[in-house]
Amino acid sequence: MRRQAGFSLLEVVVAFSILAFSLGVLYQAFGRGLGNLALSGRHGRAVVLAESILARHAGARPLREGRTEGSDGPFRWRVEVAPHDGGATGLRLFRPYRLEVTVSWEENGRIRSHALQTLRLGRL
């Protein structure tokens, strides 16, 4: 009796099981990578928006204390202008102000945010 060459049914089942497990792990890894890429893109858009809003408010003359809020697409933003108490500056014509821009958005049921701050001099 001659033995036939080839794979047994058990070897084929084991090979397919290993292949299915490996593909499942690769699918999860690619899915997480794409999710992180999308999150990174939204963070980048939030930073650009915050920089734009900060530049617009920092260039305002005169600077006014207070809070301003708004939205741009899925992003909500808030600008706060307050006097900066960084110690005596010796300047009598100018006053330092702290400007803070916070951009936030909701993603997967979580609130994410990015904030930028700067100091500007304003006239008394």
Quick structural gist:
By secondary structure, the chain is α+β, with helices and mostly antiparallel strands. It has one helix spanning 9-58, and strands spanning 66-72, 75-83, 94-107, 110-123.
Task: Describe, in plain words, how this protein is organized in 3D.
This protein is an alpha+beta fold and 124 residues long. The protein has one domain (9-123): GSPII I/J protein-like (Pantoate--beta-alanine Ligase, Chain: A,domain 2, 2-Layer Sandwich). The protein has one helix at 9-58, and strands at 66-72, 75-83, 94-107, 110-123. Strands 1-2-3-4 form a four-stranded antiparallel sheet, with helices on one face. It is rod-shaped and about 105 Å long.
Please write out the topology.
Elements: H1 9-58, E1 66-72, E2 75-83, E3 94-107, E4 110-123
Antiparallel strand pairs: 1-2, 2-3, 3-4
What overall form do the CA principal axes indicate? rod-shaped
Chain-averaged pLDDT: 86
**Domain tally:** 1
Radius of gyration: 28 Å
Estimated share of beta-strand residues: 35-45%
Number of strands: 4
CATH class identity: Alpha Beta
Distance between the termini: 106 Å
* Class by alpha and beta content: alpha+beta
Residue windows where pLDDT falls under 50 for at least 5 positions: none
CATH topology: Pantoate--beta-alanine Ligase, Chain: A,domain 2
CATH architecture: 2-Layer Sandwich
Biggest beta-sheet profile = 4 strands, antiparallel
Give the CATH superfamily: GSPII I/J protein-like
| Strand order in space, largest sheet | 1-2-3-4
Proportion of residues in helical segments? 40-55%
Number of helices: 1
Order of helices and strands: HEEEE
